[in-house]
Amino acid sequence: MQLSCKITKQYLHLQLNCIKMIPQDFEAWHYCITKMCGIPLCADFAKRRLAIYKQDKHPETIEFIRLYGLDHYRKIVSWLEIVEKQR
Question: 86 with 43: CB under 8 angstroms?
Answer without folding.
Answer: yes
